[in-house]
């Protein structure tokens, strides 16, 4: 492993100063379940200067705000989200999703901010290949085994899928995030935060956070009465694994009529893929056992599978049927 | 990689798609200077937007091919691509094949080889690029074939032509910054 330096700032301002000083050679160190593995695997893109933000107060909390929404500090552990009674009461689908993240040990270490901003888990990147994200100019996933970690919805230089479950589950709740920047706080929706395969500061990354910015908080608006939600995830190993395909849905119901919908697929694209065609199809429809089958022809019509991953699209469509069946049964 | 000023294209395989079973037959026809091209050949859908964007970025686009004048002219006319290219070098006007059209293109455009990409989907193309000193960019058409060609150590590879502008922008950003990865 290359020699690294660790800074332990005690305030956000101090952390941003250090990040600004070292440019893209620095990186935020929180739970470490992604970052330390990148270092251990000797990836060229792993930072040399780690800015450990764990000493900064007030980044680890789950609290209800005055409007009835919930604010979650970026350093909150995934295990804490999974065990939160407040979240289970207000956003049960989010809790369902985070309980499927990784293993209990890793959920105890990894943070919400880290899960949202984690690097892709393409086996070629993680194996140290000089790909787009690791100092090279080719995607080995596009020419190698792409059955698991790669996009079936096209790509932009890198074809790895976005691996996080938390963002996929937060988008249907219209969650927002706060970023601390050298110029003050910035607010984005989670959907804007992880648009997939972006070129930021001369690097390909899944999110838009610049080298000197820090994700500090996730804010989820209060759920309206009649909101129903479902999260399902297909993975090769049931105990712990990344999604081959996942689906987070929220439906705003009046009786059984769908007034509004959010449909977000995970594990099939370089970003949590909001499928607005299906959302529009569902609006105004009556929830029924057969609605999923009716929605399938509208879903993922611009799929562009690689050689070995067309099955991801079948899985995603299957999840759409299954998700709507679940919601119908619960309504 | 250094800043890119120009891109040399091998037309077949990079700008148009040919059904693989007919490819050999088509290649033979083109080499034989026959005007009749396969009706089933089609221009890749991302070609025009990508070439337009590259031109708007100030990148000079040049055809450098071992095919004949007749074959290239027919190709560019059939696919309405002629206006995108500032120069066209063929086996006829370059008086040679393989490295010769590339060298002629580079000299005539006053390019430095390290500031040039050569887009190709063949082993021969990669070899020629290496000889001339330009950046060989593998066009990933068939993944299995591309995997084999990746062993020849191309400077880069793209799946679709629409990625080429982003590729150039990434190089610009890398050269501008902020220490790279």
Number of helices of chain A: 14
Taking all residues together, what is the mean pLDDT of chain B? Answer: 86
Low-confidence stretches of chain B: 33-38
Continuous helix count of chain B:
7
Spatial sequence of strands, sheet with the most strands of chain A = 4-5-10-6-7
Instruction: Give the structural class of chain A.
Output: alpha+beta
Name of the CATH homologous superfamily of chain B? HAD superfamily/HAD-like
Average pLDDT of chain A, to the nearest integer?
96
Give a written overview of the molecule.
The complex is a heterodimer of chains A (331) and B (181). Chain A has 331 residues and is of the alpha+beta class. Chain A has a domain at 227-330: CO dehydrogenase flavoprotein, C-terminal domain (Enolase-like, domain 1), CATH 3.30.390.50. In chain A, 29% of the residues lie in helices and 22% in strands. Chain A contains 14 helices and 14 strands. Chain A has a 5-stranded antiparallel sheet with strand order 4-5-10-6-7. Chain B has 181 residues and is an alpha/beta fold. Chain B has a single domain (6-176), classed as HAD superfamily/HAD-like (Rossmann fold, 3-Layer(aba) Sandwich), CATH 3.40.50.1000. Chain B is built from 7 helices and 8 strands. Chain B has helices spanning 20-31, 47-56, 69-78, 99-108, 123-132, 143-150, 164-176, and strands at 6-9, 16-17, 42-43, 60-64, 87-89, 116-120, 135-139, 156-158. In chain B, the strands form 2 sheets. Chain B has a 6-stranded parallel sheet. A two-stranded antiparallel ribbon of chain B has the order 2-3. In chain B, strand 4 (60-64), helix 3 (69-78) and strand 5 (87-89) form a beta-alpha-beta unit. Residues 33-38 of chain B have low confidence and may be disordered. The interface between A and B is medium-sized, with 28 and 28 residues.
């Amino acid at each position: 492993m290359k020699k690294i330096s660790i800074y332990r700032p005690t305030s956000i301002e101090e952390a941003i100063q250090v990040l600004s000083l070292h440019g893209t050679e620095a990186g935020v160190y929180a739970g470490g379940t992604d970052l330390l593995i990148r270092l251990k695997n000797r990836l060229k893109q792993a930072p040399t200067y780690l800015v450990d933000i764990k000493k900064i107060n007030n980044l680890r909390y789950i609290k209800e705000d005055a409007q009835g929404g919930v604010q979650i500090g970026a350093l909150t552990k995934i295990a804490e989200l999974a065990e939160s009674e407040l979240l289970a009461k207000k956003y049960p689908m989010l809790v369902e999703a985070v309980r499927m993240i990784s293993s209990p040990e890793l959920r105890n270490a990894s943070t919400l901010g880290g899960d949202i901003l984690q690097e892709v888990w393409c086996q070629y990147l993680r194996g140290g290949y000089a790909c787009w994200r690791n100092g090279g100019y080719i995607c080995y996933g596009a020419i190698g085994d792409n059955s698991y970690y790669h996009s079936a919805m096209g790509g932009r230089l890198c074809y790895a899928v976005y691996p996080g479950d938390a963002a996929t589950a937060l988008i249907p709740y219209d969650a927002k995030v706060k970023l601390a920047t050298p110029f003050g706080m910035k607010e984005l929706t989670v959907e804007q935060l992880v648009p997939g395969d972006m070129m930021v500061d001369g690097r390909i990354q899944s999110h838009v956070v610049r080298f000197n910015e820090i994700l500090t908080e996730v804010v989820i608006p209060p759920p309206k009465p009649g909101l129903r939600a479902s999260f399902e995830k297909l993975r090769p190993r049931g105990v712990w694994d990344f999604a081959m395909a996942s689906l987070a849905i929220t439906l705003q119901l009046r009786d059984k009529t769908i007034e509004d919908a959010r449909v977000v697929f995970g594990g099939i694209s370089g970003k949590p893929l909001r499928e607005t065609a299906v959302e529009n199809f569902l609006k105004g429809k009556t929830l029924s056992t057969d609605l999923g089958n009716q929605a399938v022809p509208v879903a993922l019509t611009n799929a562009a599978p690689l050689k070995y991953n067309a099955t991801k699209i079948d899985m995603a469509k299957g999840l759409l049927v299954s998700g709507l069946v679940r919601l119908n049964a619960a309504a | 990689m250094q800043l890119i000023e120009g891109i040399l294209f091998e037309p077949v395989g990079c700008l148009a798609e040919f059904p693989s079973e007919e490819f050999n037959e088509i290649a033979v026809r083109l080499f034989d200077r026959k005007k009749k091209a396969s009706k089933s050949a089609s221009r890749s859908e991302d070609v025009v937007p990508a070439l337009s964007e590259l031109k708007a970025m100030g990148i000079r686009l040049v055809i450098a091919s071992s095919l004949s004048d007749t074959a290239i002219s027919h190709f560019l006319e059939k696919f309405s691509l002629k206006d995108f290219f500032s120069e066209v070098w063929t086996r006829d006007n370059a008086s040679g094949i393989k490295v010769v059209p590339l060298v002629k293109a580079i000299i005539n455009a006053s390019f430095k080889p390290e500031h040039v990409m050569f887009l190709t989907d063949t082993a021969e193309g990669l070899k020629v690029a290496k000889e001339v000193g330009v950046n060989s960019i593998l066009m990933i058409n068939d993944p299995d074939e591309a995997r084999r060609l990746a062993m020849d150590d191309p400077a880069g590879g793209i799946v679709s032509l629409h990625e080429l502008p982003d590729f150039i922008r990434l190089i610009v950003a890398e050269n501008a910054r902020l220490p790279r990865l």
